[in-house]
Amino acid sequence: MNHSSLPKIPWWKKTTRLIAEATLFAVIFYGVISWQQRNMLATGEQLPIEQLKLLNIQGSVTKYQLNQSEQNTLIYFFAPWCKVCDLSIDNLEKIYQKHSKNLLVLAIVLDWQSLNEIDEFLNKHQLSMPILLGDNNTRNQFNINGYPSYYLISKDGKVLARSRGYSTEVGLQWQLKLNDSI
């Protein structure tokens, strides 16, 4: 069959179909994101703790005041076995490198079996941001049920933004600008 013999579809029908498909994609994408975040702490919610007190990777107790801070805090929860964490943590490191003067960035490792497992992950990525060792209590306090999970916390301890899954450096920067954190 010759292509010239096919009826031409008007441009407005093509455009209408494209808009409908893009809208459907956006609705599905938003639905998946909302479903993933359904059990996380709500935006605008006060954190259930005022102070974060965990061991760092050197074995020292580290304390961070989350409700009376001088700057906003970005907390990234990850597991060393998580492939998405493996792909996204370098984006977080770039954010830390660019904004550590006006944003506290913390990475909390959860769901780990041994310190060797954590060391291998950290050596692979050469991270300079603070790494803290979380536990089941930490996971429960922040309602973490998947990795990676992020919370952007205000100076007064309220959840400004949250996310679960892969985030690009651009996506993280956009979220920080949206919430006046950088």
UniProtKB/TrEMBL annotation:
Q: Membrane: present as a keyword of the record?
A: yes
Record's SUPFAM superfamilies?
A: Thioredoxin-like (SSF52833)
Domain of life here? Bacteria
Q: Which InterPro entries match?
A: AhpC/TSA, Thioredoxin-like_sf, Thioredoxin_domain, Thioredoxin_ResA/DsbE_sf
The transmembrane residues are 15-33
Q: In what residue span(s) does the Thioredoxin domain sit? A: 41-182
For this entry, the protein name equals TlpA disulfide reductase family protein
